[in-house]
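Students often ask why we bother encoding 3D structure as a string. The short answer is that it lets us treat folding as translation between two languages. Here is a chain of 121 residues written in the first language.
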Amino acid sequence: QVQLEESGGGLVQAGGSLRLSCVASGRTFTDTVMGWFRQAPGKEREFVAAIGRTGGITSYAESVKGRFTISRDNAKNTVYLQMNSLKPEDTATYYCAASLTVWTTRQFTYWGQGTQVTVSS
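And here it is in the second language, the structure alphabet:
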């Protein structure tokens, strides 16, 4: 089992920045591929970014490429999502997720409770 707790959400003006954090517990952190997803009201949950076990590989949704950066600190059991140049359409609940399978067959089966990000225009 993996427990995940997100923090760092809030209200920010368009063009601003936020950094989300997610602390993991319950399993060796380097066993996990980590990801961020988001869900806006009335929409399906969508992939935002993922990072491999050592941090050496990352993947991003096209909508956030060049603006968001995912990283991890394995010594702190923490994954981050740095969000820059935020847009109103980034408004959503952001979820941290963990996969215990390898990068190429990652399946996110553990989820945090989410943190709200609101971007005002």
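Translate back mentally: The CA atoms of residues 18 and 83 lie 5 Å apart. Keep this in mind for the problem set.
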